Amino acid sequence: MKEIVGISLQENGKMEYYAIENFKLKKGYNVLVKTDRGIEFGKVVTDIHPIDASKLKKELKPIYRLATKQDYYTHRQNCKDAKEAYKKCQALAHKHKLDMKILDASYTFDRDQLMFKFYAESRIDFRELTKELASIYKTRIELRQVGVRDKAKQIGGYGSCGQTLCCSRFLNEFDSVSISMAKNQNISLNPSKINGICGRLLCCLKYEDECYKECRKGLPTLGSEVETNEGKGKVIQIDILNRTYKVILTNGNIVEENCAEN
Predict the structure, then answer these.
(1) Count of CB atoms within 10 A of residue 209's CB?
(2) Of 209, 197, 191, nearest in space to 163 by CA
(3) Which residues contact 191 (CB under 8 A, 6 or more apart)?
(4) How far apart, in Å, do the first and last CA atoms of the chain sit?
(5) Mind listing the pLDDT tens digit for each residue in 13-72?
(6) Nearest to 13 by CA among 169, 147, 193, 157
(7) For residue 58, what pLDDT is reported?
(8) Concatenated DSSP letters for the chain?
(9) Residue 82: is its pLDDT beyond 90?
(10) Taking the CA of residue 147 as centre, how many other CA atoms within 13 Å lie in the half-sphere pointing to its CB?
(11) Alpha carbon of 244 to those of 138, 186, 196: distances in Å?
(12) What is the mean pLDDT of residues 219-247?
């Protein structure tokens, strides 16, 4: 068995699991972890979970060490400097006439790398921008293009439900969402109804998909012919959650059937 814990490197950022080795941790603790970028400052966002090591799909990276008060101050300074670098990168992108939207900037803890995330509708030649940034900040520069869902998460806003966007409020990573989920829930396939402000399918379609799949079991499909106590007919309406459906009979009468009773 191994003990693992979820750590987020940015507020509302993607959470990743790390292995605990000789550390006493609690939710809310600050730590330093090793990532593909280098050493980074992170925050424990879950409780400790024991897990069978044989069930892990990949070897988890260990936590580097607990963060000290000085580490926290260093991290805050890095964040402050990254905000200034973000503004500078915006200005330089405009100077080079690059059609790109700079979303954020972040240093690794040891300032070995400065990464800028940006959104663009097409491929961008940012080589000259990278060279200029490297000459200013004297560190490794990475410009990473992200998708429209990441852009919505970064900018924020309100959904059709009236609440703050799920992606900017609590989602740490994006699940795949398919049009079949909207069909399973009998939602109108009008793009204005099923797309978020990012232009992609609503993330919330995923939340109740399993429930709808379970409730749909045993229900006939829309347009299918079924046998009722009053004769044969065609299914014209389905209420998935109440597990009922309406049938128009050959004589024109409409009856409501309850799946639980069949």
Answers:
(1) 18
(2) 197
(3) none
(4) 47
(5) 677 888 887 778 889 999 999 888 889 999 998 888 888 777 777 778 888 899 999 999
(6) 169
(7) 75
(8) -EEEEEEESSTT--EEEEE-SS----TT-EEEEE-SSSEEEEEE-S--EEE-GGG-SSPPPBEEEE--HHHHHHHHHHHHHHHHHHHHHHHHHHHTT---EEEEEEE-TTSSEEEEEEE-SS----HHHHHHHHHHH-SEEEEEE--HHHHHHHH--B-TTSSBPHHHHT-SSPPP--HHHHHHTT----HHHHB-TTSSBPGGGGTTHHHHHHHHTTPPPTT-EEEETTEEEEEEEEETTTTEEEEEETTS-EEEEEGGG-
(9) yes
(10) 7
(11) 67, 13, 30
(12) 89
pTM listed for this prediction: 0.69
- Taking the C-alpha atoms of residue 194 and residue 203, their distance in angstroms, rounded to an integer, is 9
> What is the distance between the alpha carbons of residues 100 and 118, in angstroms, rounded to a whole number?
6
137: Cβ–Cβ under 8 A, 6 or more apart, which residues?
A: 85, 114
Q: Give 113-160 pLDDT, tens digit per residue.
A: 999 999 998 888 999 999 999 999 999 999 999 888 877 877 788 888
pLDDT number for residue 247 = 92
> Distance between CA atoms of 117 and 3, rounded to whole angstroms?
32
Cα 207 to Cα 30: distance, rounded to the nearest angstrom? 30
Q: What is the largest CA-CA distance in the chain?
A: 82
